[in-house]
Amino acid sequence: MFIDKIDRDVLLKPLQTVVGIVERKQPLPILSNVLIEKGDSNLKLVATDLEIQISTIRAIEANGPAEAVTVSAKKLQEILRVLPDASKVSLEIQENKLLIKSNKSRFSLQTLPAQDFPVVTNQLENASQVILKQGLLKKLLGLVQYAMAQQDIRYYLNGVLLVIDGQQIRLIATDGHRLAFVSSKLEKTHTKTEVILSRKTVNELSKLLADSEEEITLELAEKQVRLTFADIVLTSKVIDGKFPDYERVIPNYTNHLSLDRLTVLQALQRAAILSNEKFRGVRFVLTEKNLRIISSNSEQEEAQEDIENEYHGPALDIGFNVNYLLDGLNNTPAQEVTFSFGDPNSSILITVPGEEEFKYVVMPMRI
Fold this sequence. Notes:
CATH superfamily of the largest domain: DNA Polymerase III, subunit A, domain 2
Strand content: over 45%
Largest sheet: 12 strands, antiparallel
Helix content: 10-25%
Radius of gyration: 25 Å
Order of helices and strands: EHEEEEHEEEEHEEHEEEHEHEEEEHEEE
CATH architecture of the largest domain: Roll
CATH topology of the largest domain: DNA Polymerase III, Chain A, domain 2
Low-confidence stretches: none
CATH class of the largest domain: Alpha Beta
Number of helices: 7
C-alpha cells in the first residue's frame, strides 16, 4: 500500500497548495501531473511548469518503503474535493495506475514514472538571502501587482521588480501606462540585489502567503529565486531583462489634493458606468474647492460627479483611464489619499498622507 487510510485533508490541502501552477494543456503530459513522494514519516508533493516549482511537505504516519508516483493533479484534486469531509483515503500503486479508495468509492488514475518528473535544477549560487514577515510581503505585493503588464512584448514588464538595497525592500510594477511603487524597511542591511519576478510567480505568492508574522526566507540569484515559508518552497526563474528607470517616472509636484479614498472611489465607479467601453476615459476638471469627474460615451450619454475639497491650486482639465484610477484606489487600504498634479499633459501621482512608502503614477489620456 502506497498510503493507507489518511484523512482526506492531509492530502487535499498540500495538493491545493501546489496545483495552482498546473495547467491542463501542457507541452509535456507529465507537467499536468503532481509528484507524490512518500518518505519515512512525511509526504511531499511537487508541481512544476518548468518556470516555477512549488513543493510542500506534510508529516504523516507512513508504513512500507519510500515510494513516488506522478498522477493528474487536477483530477486528483477534484476527486478529493468531492469526497465527504473527514473521509479516510487510501492510495495504491498498481503497475501504471493509482487506485484511490475511500469508503465505497473507487477511482483509478493513469500514472507516469516519478523518475521522469522534471524537477527544477538549483541555480542559486551566490544568492542573497533576505528574511521578512509573510504578512509584510503579502501587503507589499498587493500594493503593486495590479500594475503588472499582461502578455506585453516588452517581457520585462510582465512581472514585478524586487529590489533589496541596504535596509530597504522595494517592489515596482508598470505596464507602460501606470506605475506602482512601494517600499519598506528591513531589519538587516543587505547588498543591492534586483530581480524581476514573473507574473505567475507573483500571483501564486499572493495566494499562498499568510497575513501573519511568520517568516519567509527569500533567496535571490541572477537566474532564480527561492522562497521558503511554512511548509512550502517556491522556486522560480526570474525574468531576464532591463526594467525601466522607475525613479525617473515618479514626479515631484507642488499641486496637491487630499480626498477621502472611498468618496472618490465611489464617484469614479459611478462615472465609469457611462464611460466609453473601449477607452474607459474620465475627465478631472479641477477648480477652486471643487473636483468634477466627467465621463461620456459614443451614445452621447454623460455622467458628472462633484466632490467639494480644499484645493486652491491652478485650474486643470485632464483625462485618465478610469480603470487605472480604480485599480490604485481599490488596492490601497488608506482612509485618505493625495492626488498630485502637474499640467494637463502630465501624469497624476497618488500617494497616502504621511506614508512615503507608496506611490502610484497614472499617465494622462486625451479625451
